[in-house]
Write a structure and sequence with these properties.
heterodimer; A: 106 residues; mainly alpha; B: 353 residues; alpha+beta; 7-stranded antiparallel beta sheet; 9 strands; 47% helix; globular
Chain lengths: 106, 353
Amino acid sequence: MPSPDLALSEAYADPAVQAFGKALRAAMTFEKDYGSLMDFENAETPDAFNNAVKKFLRRNYGSATRPTAGDLERLMSMAKSDRDVRTLRAAIISYGLSRWDKKEEK
Amino acid sequence: MQFYVTKSGLETFDVCRAYGLAQLLQVLAGGKGAPRIIDSGGVFLITMSVRPDAEDFKTSEQWVALFASDNWQRVFLTYKAAWKEQSDKVKKSLQRSAFEVIEEAQKKGLRVTFGTGFALPGPLDPVGFKGLKGLTGGSYSEGQTEVDEFNWALGCLGAVVAQRYKIQKAQGNKWEYFVSVPVPSEVRFGNFLKIRELVYKAGLKYTGVRNAAAHFTLLLADAVRELAEGNPAFPAKFSNLLYFSLFQSGQQFKPSRGGVADLHRLIDMSLQRPAETGAMFDTWKYLFRRGSAQGNEDLAEAITELVMTPSPETYYRHARIFNRYVVDTNKGVKHENLYTLEALKEVMHYAES
C-alpha cells in the first residue's frame, strides 16, 4: 500500500526539517550560501534531494547550526517520492520566511 | 418581514439587485432597520425587523446622499456624458415605485422580465455587453440586454452601493477599470456599509484584474476580521467575489477578463482564528504593497496565485519568490514584514485546505 502523502504543515513542524530549515537560513544569511538554496529549489526527485542535502552539508561543514546525523537520517527517510521531495523543499525554504533572532542563532 | 429577489441567472445583476433592495429598504425604514441579505439558492432573501414605510423618504438625507455618489458615473460609464440622465432616471423610477417594488418583493418576489425596454449598463452585465452595438462589416449585430424598469433601477442602485471600481492608467494613455462586487451569503447590510467604508477606497497599482481581485479579497476578509472582534458568528459572510475588467478600446469601454474568487475560506479563517489570520494578513498586505512597485511584479503574481488558487504548488512558488527578496541584500525584507510562526502555519493550512 502506498504511504499517505506528506502534508506541508506536518513536514514544517518536523524537528529534522526544522534543523535543516534553520541551518539553510543561517547559511544564506551569514555565509551567503545561495548555491544550497538553488540546489534545494531545483531538487525534484529523491536522488536530486539527496544530492542537494549532501552538497549543503559539505559546504557548511564547520557551521554551528549544522544538523545532526539523526536529523539527516530522518530527513532522508521522509523523502520517499517526488511528491515528498516537493513538500520537504517547500517546508525547508519556508524557514527563511519567518521571523528569527539573528544574533541568537549566530 | 421577508423580501425576495429571485435570481435571473445574470450573476452580477442579481447580486446588485439584492444590495439595491436592501439599500432601498433601509432608506424606507428611515435608516432604522437593519436589513439582512441571505443567499438561499434560487433567491436572495432580505429580512427586516422594521416596517419600511417612510413616505417622505425622497427628502431624507440618506436618499439624497445616495445620488451624490461618485459611483453613478462609473456604473454608467458606457453612457459617457449622459450618465447623469441615467442616474436621474433611476432616481425618478424608484421614487415613483418604491412601495410597489417592496410590495412585490414581499408578496411574489422580484422577478426579472427580459426584453422590456431598460438596457442594462455594461458593469451590470459584463458577460453580455460589448462596445459595438450597431452593424459591423459582417452585418452582425446583437441587441442589448433589456429588463423591466423595477429591476433595472434596483440593479443600478445596488451597483452604485456595492461595486468597487479601481481605475488605473493602462498602456497607450488609456484607462482601465477593475470592477468587483462581493456576493453576500449572510450579511447584515449595516455591516456591509462599514466594510465598504473600511476597504473600498483602499487600492494599489495592480498588475491586472486578478491581482486587484486577490488584494480586494484580502482587504474584505481583514475588514470582517476587524469588525467581528473575535465573534465567530459575526453576520458578514460573503461567499465569492465577482470581478471583471473594462478596458478602453477606441472611444468605447469593453469588458475584458473576469472571474469568481472564493471569499468564503478566508472569511471563515478570519472569524475562527482571528489572531493567527490577522498576522498572516499583515504579511500578505506587505507582499501586495511591495509587489505593486515596478520591478516586483513576480512577488505580486505569486501572492495573487496563492490567494486565488491556494495549493501546495502556489504556496511553493510564493515561498521561493519571497525568499529571493529576503536573501537579496539589495532588496531585503524588514523583520516585521516576515511571517510569525503562527502566521506561517496558517498560510500552510490555507494552501493545503
